[in-house]
């Protein structure tokens, strides 16, 4: 593979690792907008709950997308005495990119690395009782989050077409799965049925003794 091809592949991987870039391309697929309008539309549609949004990152993403030819300036707008704002539009290359990106995201599962997964992987560095107490605290927060999302889905189901609430329904499904798993894990820690619990307790006791 040539250095140019390798560099292009790395750039694509970096860009496609940033959901905010996808959000910008998707919004500009509807109509040309300036960055402030893109941010407003994302917030109004509550897409900022799915994509991390801040103005510094937004302008950096827009600069990179324009540099790579996926979007281009389409003019300027001015609101009262405010400075002029550059309006951007999607290029044909950008339209192909967002189409290909979406097909890849929807059609092919990828390995993700949630922080809770990492915490579970190294849970044994704590004593079992400490881990159980922390997980019980997590359960309280999970139950609150589940109730909030259930209420949100119920309110929106009649007003918003399903494709526009899919991310909320997916988030709720993940939270419910995490809640069920964490409840079961806490239960097994409490009743002693977690496989390897005795060895874990012994290791934690040895570690506490050696550090004292």
Automatic annotation (TrEMBL):
Alphabetical list of Gene3D superfamilies matching this protein: Winged helix-like DNA-binding domain superfamily/Winged helix DNA-binding domain (1.10.10.10)
Domain Transcription regulator PadR N-terminal: 24-98
Domain of life of the source: Bacteria
Transmembrane segments annotated in the record for this chain: none
Pfam family, one: PadR
Cross-referenced InterPro entries: Metal_resp_DNA-bind_regulator, Tscrpt_reg_PadR_N, WH-like_DNA-bd_sf, WH_DNA-bd_sf
Name of the protein in its database record: PadR family transcriptional regulator
């Amino acid at each position: 593979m040539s250095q140019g091809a390798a560099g292009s592949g790395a750039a694509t991987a970096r860009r496609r690792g940033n959901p905010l870039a996808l959000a910008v391309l998707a919004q500009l697929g509807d109509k040309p907008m300036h960055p402030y309008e893109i941010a407003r539309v994302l917030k109004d549609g509550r897409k900022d709950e799915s994509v991390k949004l801040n103005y510094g990152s937004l302008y950096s993403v827009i600069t990179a997308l324009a540099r790579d030819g996926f979007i281009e300036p389409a003019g300027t707008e001015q609101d009262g005495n405010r400075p002029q704002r550059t309006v951007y539009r999607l290029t044909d290359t950008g339209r192909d990119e967002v189409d290909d990106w979406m097909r890849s995201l929807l059609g092919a599962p990828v390995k993700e690395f949630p922080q809770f997964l990492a915490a579970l992987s190294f849970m044994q560095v704590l004593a079992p009782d400490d881990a159980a107490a922390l997980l019980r605290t997590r359960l309280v927060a999970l139950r609150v989050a589940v109730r909030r999302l259930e209420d949100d889905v119920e309110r929106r189901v009649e007003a918003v077409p399903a494709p526009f609430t899919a991310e909320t329904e997916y988030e709720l499904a993940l939270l419910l799965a995490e809640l069920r798993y964490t409840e079961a894990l806490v239960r097994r820690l409490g009743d002693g049925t977690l496989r390897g619990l005795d060895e874990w307790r012994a290791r934690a006791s040895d570690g506490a003794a050696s550090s004292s």
